[in-house]
Design goal:
globular, alpha/beta, 84 residues
Amino acid sequence: MNLQIVIDNKLEEFTGKLSKMTYEKLPVGRKPILISNNCFQLFSKEWVSALILIDESIIEDGPILYLHQSVKDLIYPNNEFITL
């Protein structure tokens, strides 16, 4: 599934968020494993990681991944979309 990257600098550095409905729509074989039922990690090729929270308060907004600018700069500097 392609997710549009949207910058949200209200988030903590090296974090992001994804709506629960979008997470549930991810293909089973490609769905990241949850840590403590509400978050997962994304890694770069250099093993820099970002903690992504599953946010139940986000009303269905389409396939959007909200990231702090620090994550965008280090892990996805040239991408407007990512595929999970």
